[in-house]
Amino acid sequence: MDTADVVVIGAGIVGLATAYAITRASPRTTVAVLDKEPGPARHQTGHNSGVIHSGIYYRPGSLKARYATQGAAEMVKFCARHDIPHEVTGKLIVATAREELPRLHALVQRGRTNDIPVRELGPAQIAEREPHVAGLAAIHVGTTGVCDFTAVAEAMARLATESGEARTAYGTEVRAVHRDGGTVIVEPAAGPPIRAKALVNCAGLQSDRIARLAGDDTTGVRIVPFRGEYYELAPARNRLVRGLVYPVPDPAFPFLGVHLTRGIDGTVHIGPNAVPAPAREGYRRRTVSARDLLETALFPGTWRIARRHWRYEAGELRRSLSKRAFTDEVRRLLPEVTAADLVPSAAGVRAQAVLRDGELVDDFLFAGSGPFVHVLNAPSPAATASLPIGREIARRALEAAGHT
Fold first, then answer.
1. pLDDT tens digit sequence for 354-365
2. At residue 371, does pLDDT exceed 80?
3. DSSP character at residue 171
4. Is the dihedral of CA 217, 287, 297, 189 positive or negative?
């Protein structure tokens, strides 16, 4: 039987940030990072738009607000220190209808409460920054940027394992978890079991299932997958977007709406929408998992979401099924765009935690007791906030392992 002080399940950016933080805080603590995929960052980390978020959207005092604001600054420094492509571009949040103006003003106040530099712009100032974008008013958020989060995750894995006390085991799916007195035994599908003092569950789309394997009660929360579908601007039309342009978000839903993102490679991504996915790892529209569908359908919170947000989701589904409808949504911000300018791009799947009453969990959610630390909700801006999130999870894991 193998041994480790801490086992981390999940080699996305949060799991690897946790391993990295443990090796920094307690260099002699041994860490094993397990992931069923053949390499790191194969799910949420490797399927997002690469935006370093400022923290302007998040409720003051929430974990998202605290960690995103802190994490954005740390992420820029981390990328610079390790030669990872990145750029602090700033972004515009643009109101295109009069009814959005009060929400835009509320974002200004929230940004200032969260100590984020914001500047209010009128139509002429919008045109100076983004000549092809239309809007009644906007705010400019100077601390937003872009980077390659897959490269960040790879760097964290490298730095953690360089210590000699951490190791990664890819292609290692966890099939069982047992308590044995004061320790935990993790059984992979192949290979020897691992005995550990603490287990950290950073499994993202599978995190509630791993928590159940560990014997913890997750009846009150379930991961409901939402697929985010993207297009890219055809290369000849990339000139239409200089940087990052976002709509004013709907505060009732934890998604930011279809936005325009010039990535670190110069490609302009447009999206995502947010549609219920028929598989937790359903990156392709035709990918269906009977198990995932059944679990989602049997969870009471799913139907309560549907009743509460059916108008919103009907619009999202329409834009998913109709390129013309998607284009019409984009044209609110970018009037010159046509359907011919949009090229399908890779989709992502958001691991959204939902409560039994149908509430979408809006903040990061940690759970577990004894030797277990479960990360049950870590969607965007988790990549931005991964360094401070990793330190918080590491603190909990080291306490659970008795390495305080």
1. 999 999 999 999
2. yes
3. S
4. negative
* Nearest by Cα to 201 from 360, 353, 358: 353
pLDDT digits (tens, 9 = 90+) for 67-78: 999 999 999 999
Element (H, E) at 246: strand 244-247
Phi, psi of 363, rounded to the nearest 5 degrees: -110, 170
Dihedral angle of Cα 235, 237, 240, 243, to the nearest 10 degrees: -10
How does DSSP assign 330-388, residue by residue? Answer: HHTT-TT--GGGEEE---EEEEEEEETTSPBP-S-EEE--TTEEEEEE--TTTTTTHHH
Q: What does residue 44 show for φ and ψ, rounded to 5 degrees?
A: -55, -40
What's the one-letter identity of residue 119? R
Q: What are phi and psi of 72, to 5 degrees?
A: -60, -45
Q: Angle CA(33)–CA(264)–CA(275) in degrees, nearest 5?
A: 70
Q: Which residue has the tokens 């009732």?
A: 252
Q: Which two tokens stand for residue 73?
A: 């600054």
β-pair type (348-355, 365-367) = unpaired
Tell me the C-alpha to C-alpha distance, in Å, between residue 43 and each of 35, 184, 203, 348: 11, 26, 10, 8
Q: Identify residue 298 by its one-letter amino acid code.
A: L
Digit-coded pLDDT (tens) for 184-193? 999 999 999 9
Cα three-residue angle 299-302-307, rounded to 5 degrees: 140
Give the chain's length. 404
Q: In this structure, are residues 60 and 110 in contact, taking their beta carbons and an 8 Å threshold?
A: yes
Helix (H) or strand (E) holding 107: helix 101-113
SS3 58: coil
For strand 118-121 and strand 244-247, is the pairing parallel, antiparallel, or unpaired?
unpaired
Over its C-alpha atoms, the chain yields an Rg (Å, rounded) of 21
User: Quick one: tokens of 33?
Assistant: 């990072």
Residue 102 three-state SS = helix
> Bridge partners of 119?
140
Tokens, residue 108: 């200004």
CB 14 within 8 A of CB 148: no
Distance CA 69, CA 23 (A): 24
If one counts every other C-beta atom within 10 angstroms of the C-beta of residue 140, the result is 18
Neighbours of 90 (CB within 10 A): 17
Q: Distance between CA 84 and CA 387 in Å, rounded?
A: 15
d(CA 319, CA 149): 27
- When pLDDT is averaged across residues 268-283 and rounded to a whole number, the result is 94
